[in-house]
Amino acid sequence: MSVSFEPSNEKERVRQGLLKVGTKRSTGEIQVETPGCLMYSRRGATPHLTPDMARLLPNRGIQISLSHMFDDMPPPSINFEPGLHKYLNLEDYLMFIDTLDPSPELEQTLLNGEKYISVNTYGGIRKVTPQDFIKTINAYKPDIAAAMADIVADKIPTAKRARKSVDRTLKWLDEIIAEKKENISLFGVLVGSQHERERQRCAEELVKRDMDGYVLDARGLNVEEEEEQERLLRVSLDCLPKDKPRVGYGFSAPDGVLRGISLGIDLFDSAFPYITTEKGHALTFEFGSQEDKNAGQLVYDLWDPKNKSDQGPFLEGCQCFACQNHTRSYTHHLLNTHEMLGPVLLMVHNFHHYLRFFKEIRDSIRDDSFEQKRADFLHKYYNK
Ligand SMILES: [Zn+2]
């Protein structure tokens, strides 16, 4: 298996490109356009959607979090010899495995040690060592794995703690590089908290190891001012080679996606449309369109009693199955009666809409209108 990345349009830091993963599976090479997103999953399944419904979405990249598999340690699925693609019937997907959940459902713990990280699972906290990690990814055989890292969840880590996090991350990474199966591409995780020197050291050391790609996690960066946050994130990104893909966490809300793209992130997690669905909301924002069908609102609330007699779709003009076939009134009724179909319809719409957002962004980078459309979007939906 091999990962290749071609950024074809690059201006300032903004890039549009194609990530290709060669596989030995019958489905052959898999391509994911960037900027794009990896489908959020729980235990390898897209929440609320059956696999055939998920397949109707134009996306063949999926993210799987080991925290969802580790409630049983070791997970029984590691005994399935063909690997996780076959186990989950996802052979035609680019499978990206990471340790933590990108949504806030399973929060990070503060309890990492010299030889392990603490992972919050649905069954409680589990200690995971580099050996556990290596054994699991070698059994699962994903296309890409993000290396296990010491991500600091403290609000304000000291310089000493940040240094330790970089040291541990690099030490574990070397063990993983030495023992992982050859055909698993490995992405390095950029750590260093708000300490510039440590961020730079981590990035430089990862580059020396010639990683197949990089992961930037903005979630633990407790810096209030946006400008300072971006400066620190750039310290990590500036060291990286341009022909390697970058995955960003903590950017999945629409303004975060635009911010991440401006920094040079290629792939995003899709926790946002999932969380939106859980709230009973439908995404309604428009990128690059003069039309405003929902009065500057990012989302539309299906719990609101005003939906009782509303025979319109979630969003006028949307081509998704839910909007083409069902009304706001019906979904409001489904939510109130706790019918499973309510979140199913919302999930279909929200992922359709979110993927369309990425397509519109890619088109805008191609025709050089990204900056203008980004400014219009932030003005309209975030009063910036
Ligand atoms: Zn729709």
From TrEMBL:
<comment type="function">
    <text>Non-catalytic subunit of the queuine tRNA-ribosyltransferase (TGT) that catalyzes the base-exchange of a guanine (G) residue with queuine (Q) at position 34 (anticodon wobble position) in tRNAs with GU(N) anticodons (tRNA-Asp, -Asn, -His and -Tyr), resulting in the hypermodified nucleoside queuosine (7-(((4,5-cis-dihydroxy-2-cyclopenten-1-yl)amino)methyl)-7-deazaguanosine).</text>
</comment>
<feature type="binding site">
    <location>
        <position position="318"/>
    </location>
    <ligand>
        <name>Zn(2+)</name>
    </ligand>
</feature>
<dbReference type="InterPro" id="IPR036511">
    <property type="entry name" value="TGT-like_sf"/>
</dbReference>
<feature type="binding site">
    <location>
        <position position="320"/>
    </location>
    <ligand>
        <name>Zn(2+)</name>
    </ligand>
</feature>
<protein>
    <recommendedName>
        <fullName>Queuine tRNA-ribosyltransferase accessory subunit 2</fullName>
    </recommendedName>
</protein>
<dbReference type="GO" id="GO:0006400">
    <property type="term" value="P:tRNA modification"/>
</dbReference>
<feature type="domain" description="tRNA-guanine(15) transglycosylase-like">
    <location>
        <begin position="27"/>
        <end position="382"/>
    </location>
</feature>
<keyword id="KW-0862">Zinc</keyword>
<dbReference type="GO" id="GO:0046872">
    <property type="term" value="F:metal ion binding"/>
</dbReference>
<dbReference type="InterPro" id="IPR002616">
    <property type="entry name" value="tRNA_ribo_trans-like"/>
</dbReference>
<feature type="binding site">
    <location>
        <position position="349"/>
    </location>
    <ligand>
        <name>Zn(2+)</name>
    </ligand>
</feature>
<keyword id="KW-0963">Cytoplasm</keyword>
<dbReference type="Pfam" id="PF01702">
    <property type="entry name" value="TGT"/>
</dbReference>
<dbReference type="InterPro" id="IPR028592">
    <property type="entry name" value="QTRTD1"/>
</dbReference>
<feature type="binding site">
    <location>
        <position position="323"/>
    </location>
    <ligand>
        <name>Zn(2+)</name>
    </ligand>
</feature>
<keyword id="KW-0819">tRNA processing</keyword>
<comment type="subunit">
    <text>Heterodimer of a catalytic subunit and an accessory subunit.</text>
</comment>
<dbReference type="GO" id="GO:0005737">
    <property type="term" value="C:cytoplasm"/>
</dbReference>
<comment type="similarity">
    <text>Belongs to the queuine tRNA-ribosyltransferase family. QTRT2 subfamily.</text>
</comment>
<dbReference type="InterPro" id="IPR050852">
    <property type="entry name" value="Queuine_tRNA-ribosyltrfase"/>
</dbReference>
<dbReference type="GO" id="GO:0008479">
    <property type="term" value="F:tRNA-guanosine(34) queuine transglycosylase activity"/>
</dbReference>
<keyword id="KW-0479">Metal-binding</keyword>
